[in-house]
Amino acid sequence: MKVLIRKALLAGIFIGLGSYGYLALGGLPGAVIFAFGLMSVIVMGVPLYTGMAGVVKPSQTGDLLMVWFFNIVGCAIMGLAAHYCSNYDEALATMVANRLDDSWMEAFTKAVGCGLIIDCAVYMAKTPSPWGSKTAGTLLPMLFGVPLFIVCGFYHSIADVMYLTAHFQWHPEIPLYYLAIFLGNFVGCNIRRLIN
Q1: Taking 70 as the threshold, does the pLDDT of residue 134 lie above it?
Q2: Does the pLDDT at position 183 exceed 90?
Q3: Angle (CA) 129 149 152, round 5°
């Protein structure tokens, strides 16, 4: 149990680092830098909510929720670092305002897209191709998948914790927004199961 907590915390820190990089650079270069976070999760073998949500069994729901919680804690640590060590107030205010302006369904739908992309990227990185090509073990799905969900404007429930924490301002819309992206990521991560 303690090992799972430590690993989930580290996964959140990795995603927070990737988010911080995106915040610092912005645009496509920042989206590519963000991929470092998911690559680190895969290489280090640490559990991430959006990497697990599409593969867990119902009996593992408790573990998934624990991973999600400690991913949030790890990412919030990076959000606090971004808040106190950098000056991205204007960029964060715009980013958070745009997210909170979305309706519940818009936020949910954008999170579904992110969940689908992340689940497929993790799956492709770990699974040999049925056509004989040796794609398992490559980080290319992350290198393309992460920038894809960012340029599409999709929402990642762990990464967004970094932005919300770094913004460091409470908005009453946050709980409903966060519930939408948490559930949307879960649904998106499970779409692949429908065809497997």
Answers
A1: no
A2: yes
A3: 130
